[in-house]
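Data deposition worksheet. Section B asks for the primary sequence of the deposited chain exactly as it was used as input, without tags or linkers unless they were present during the calculation. Section C holds the resulting structure in token form. Section D is free text for depositor observations; keep each observation to a single sentence. Incomplete worksheets are returned to the depositor.
Section A, Depositor: J.P.
Section B:
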Amino acid sequence: MVAIYTLTSELHDEKAVGAVTKEFLGSLDIEYVFRGNDYSDYGSYGLSLIYVCTGGTEGIFKKLLPDLQAKSISPFYLLTSGRSNSLAASMEILSYLRQNNMKGEIIHGSAVYITKRIKLLSQVEDARNTLLGSRLGIIGQPSDWLISSSVDERVVRQRFGVELVNIPMNELLDVISETPEPLSEDSSDIEAIRSSLPGANKIYKALKTLVENYQLQGFTLRCFDLLTAIKNTGCLALAKLNAEGIVAGCEGDVPAMISMMIVRSLLGVSGFQANPSRIDPETGELIFAHCTIPLNMVERFEYDTHFESGIGVGIRGFMKEGPVTVFKVSGDKSRHFIAEGYLTQNLSEPNLCRTQQKIQLTDKSQISYFLSNPIGNHHIILPGHYKALLEEMVSS
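Section C:
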């Protein structure tokens, strides 16, 4: 929900200001709660807007600022109609915020532009509130080969509002051993896969138990340890849990997990964690692959073995061809990558991880990022074009 608070100078006629306010806010196609000059609950709504009604309000804002800072960590959004010197006052306020290393934005323009901007910001603020205080598990340590994907847990908490919870791999193995083999309708014509399905579903049940015990909104799993410990894989479990709304990442990759949590908070899907397998620098085409994908992201799927080991259960998912976004944020939020493109083909090559996507980037010049300055190897693929939304989420 959007809440609108006001700043008005006593020098201006209250009745005239009220008429302009009613006309201006009525021109916007948004639902909102009008709080006027009562800032007692500032920050408690999804998006708080400060409507600068008139000039001469800079000092009023400065007096309010300490209390507003204590109530919200979001940027200050200054809404202005441009009437009664409101834009000039907003510029002075924003300049003051910048001088004091605080974030803010003036929302000004046509009614159509302002409406569009407020709706986007509202979606972003709702996602930020979802992230704030969320608990994400690290089950086992990140895989040994993720040498650039370490994180500082204090920085993650400060910059994303996320709490990381470390869970020993032995605890998961103990829960798996204590979990009864669940009844399942999953089946396969291939004996090796069919015999692995009961164990794969035990892993799913055990992970779900840990999620409940630790009150997690998501986790990343050092999944390759399962290959040696119990001769099975977590791919099916991750595919199912992501489809159920629990972010479930591979290989203990924390930045990838955070990226998936951002996507879920914004769009309601976890995204497909995958790594580029082939790149064509001249055409801007990439092949992404991994052995799992959220089951609610695909039109159909097949079971196969896990690619590297040839054992357990992997997922070959076929996502609808069309617009996609490729996304990754670093664990300290200092860098991010967002590219829009199109899924042109789902592949089934034998020498790659089982879910394989051929993606053509809209801006082929962005391909140089992968070869010159990547943020690790895993990236998140999501259906649809959401560059503007993700950019707003990770840039402010």
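Section D:
The chain has a mean pLDDT of 93.
Residues 9 and 306 are 67 Å apart (CA to CA).
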